[in-house]
Amino acid sequence: MSNKSALITGITGQDGSYLAELLLEKGYKVFGLIRRTSSPLMENIEHIVKEIEFVEGDLLDQGSLVQAISKSKPDEVYNLAAQSFVGTSWTQPVLTGQITAIGVTNILDAVHKTRPEAKFYQASSSEMFGKVMETPQKETTPFYPRSPYGVAKVYGHWITVNYRESFDMFACSGILFNHESPRRGLEFVTRKVTDAVARIKLGMQKELRMGNLDAKRDWGFAGDYVKAMWLMLQQATPDDYVIATGETHTVQELVDIAFGHVGLSWRDYVVIDPKFVRPAEVDLLLGDCTKAKQQLGWKLEVGFEQLVTMMVESDIAKLSKL
Ligand code: NAP
Ligand code: G4F
């Protein structure tokens, strides 16, 4: 068992919850940064809430980050907090930049000034590849972001590289392709679909309004992806890694599998609504994670169809209890 400690920003989110579970299993003392809200939502970490020590803070407030780091004295810092929904990044572009871009400098700099020996993980994204310059995308593929979110993540990525090169910090950036789970937020396409399929099956909803069904994504399971985050910080030297499945599927395939799993045809329920079509789309993401497989020994356990059916089953179980 480890006697290390870790500070996780974004602990209430999908990835934060799986990472906290993983680190607790490994014997870490886990600190979770939470921001003050009037109605705290802890659904994803309810089952482990007693094992986590919470520290108050916000990526927008550097003083609070310095205090959180001074209090927790972490060996490892995982920066998972972000305004993470691409759609909202067009309606709140400034806030997205402040949290998802400048927020990274706020925490990196707080680590550099108060705990420079701590290892740092930045949650970078395949959205940085945007209008892809090559397929499949790997660590050396040039970035061409297509949303304010993608632009902010490119900044977060490069400032992490810059602190590593300027100050010799152990800072890694994980370029993760889409990863999903029953804990995914309801506005992201996978969970939106599996929640709707469950509601339609249970007679609680009549139709599902969607945007672009032709977009292709490389979708994996979040539980597999947090293992890669941890592996990056256990290496002898810091580096950046693509984490992906190496398979791509259209949104239509996702919808087809989800409805098919409960014996329904998506064509009877899906309505295309321009409201969900984005001002600029990322048409195709497909990752090449050869480097992570070879250097980290990372491997995938859950495939695409298994992921979608797991999410449908989970949503049916949740909604059946209401
Ligand atoms: P998520 O479920 O949306 O969680 C985001 C987390 O960030 C929440 O805990 C949220 O806290 C926190 N947060 C937002 N603004 C904050 C602020 N100003 N200060 C402190 N905390 C703040 O996201 P996720 O899917 O777990 O993703 C984790 C990270 O990986 C994000 O940085 C995301 O951009 C990145 N990423 C995700 C994927 C993916 O497919 N999931 C792929 C590549 C990269 P509240 O509960 O208070 O809102
Ligand atoms: O599920 P999405 O909203 O995820 P997106 O935009 O790929 O971003 C996610 O993955 C990134 C990694 O590549 C993360 F960095 C980011 O934080 C987030 O987790 O949309 C996926 C695709 C898009 O092409 C979108 O246009 O689904 C398409 N789509 C079609 N109809 C829809 C809908 N997306 C949403 N959210 N809702 C729809 O009704």
TrEMBL record:
<comment type="similarity">
    <text>Belongs to the NAD(P)-dependent epimerase/dehydratase family. GDP-mannose 4,6-dehydratase subfamily.</text>
</comment>
<dbReference type="GO" id="GO:0008446">
    <property type="term" value="F:GDP-mannose 4,6-dehydratase activity"/>
</dbReference>
<dbReference type="InterPro" id="IPR006368">
    <property type="entry name" value="GDP_Man_deHydtase"/>
</dbReference>
<dbReference type="GO" id="GO:0042351">
    <property type="term" value="P:'de novo' GDP-L-fucose biosynthetic process"/>
</dbReference>
<feature type="domain" description="NAD(P)-binding">
    <location>
        <begin position="7"/>
        <end position="311"/>
    </location>
</feature>
<comment type="function">
    <text>Catalyzes the conversion of GDP-D-mannose to GDP-4-dehydro-6-deoxy-D-mannose.</text>
</comment>
<protein>
    <recommendedName>
        <fullName>GDP-mannose 4,6-dehydratase</fullName>
        <ecNumber>4.2.1.47</ecNumber>
    </recommendedName>
</protein>
<dbReference type="InterPro" id="IPR016040">
    <property type="entry name" value="NAD(P)-bd_dom"/>
</dbReference>
<dbReference type="GO" id="GO:0070401">
    <property type="term" value="F:NADP+ binding"/>
</dbReference>
<keyword id="KW-0521">NADP</keyword>
<dbReference type="InterPro" id="IPR036291">
    <property type="entry name" value="NAD(P)-bd_dom_sf"/>
</dbReference>
<dbReference type="Pfam" id="PF16363">
    <property type="entry name" value="GDP_Man_Dehyd"/>
</dbReference>
<keyword id="KW-0456">Lyase</keyword>
